[in-house]
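Entry 14. Two folds queued back to back today. First construct below, sequence then structure tokens.
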Amino acid sequence: MKTLNKTLALIALASSSAAFAATDFDTLDVDGNGAISQSEAAVDAKLMSQFSELDTDGNGELSKQEFAKA
């Protein structure tokens, strides 16, 4: 039973990690306005750590061009 629980936990962890790892511009742009806001970027820790550096025009959003530099 412990092996089954460990296996199920590992599968759940792998699938949730894959969901966050597979983030692209269109997936992150939840509202479809053509830009990624800080709240939309918050689901990706790596992107959030680079957000202010990538936001070269300082408007608080990432355009496709800015996101492409990530």
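Second construct, same run, same settings:
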Amino acid sequence: MTPQTFRYLFEGISADGVRYLIERNDMTLSEAIATFHNSETFAALEDFETGLYIESPAYVRI
């Protein structure tokens, strides 16, 4: 997998995670980004070895 493909998948799941936080927890965009960025899910997504980045956004929850 190329770095560009990994980045594309990572960014897509990240955007969905932030949107999920906004919709389900009534957060502002800033709050949702901070919450997601500081989550264990974000750390796992960043780790190429976990393979979490290839899962569907519905599977990846904060």
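Quick look at the second one. Helices lie at 3-25, 29-37, 40-46. The longest helix spans residues 3-25.
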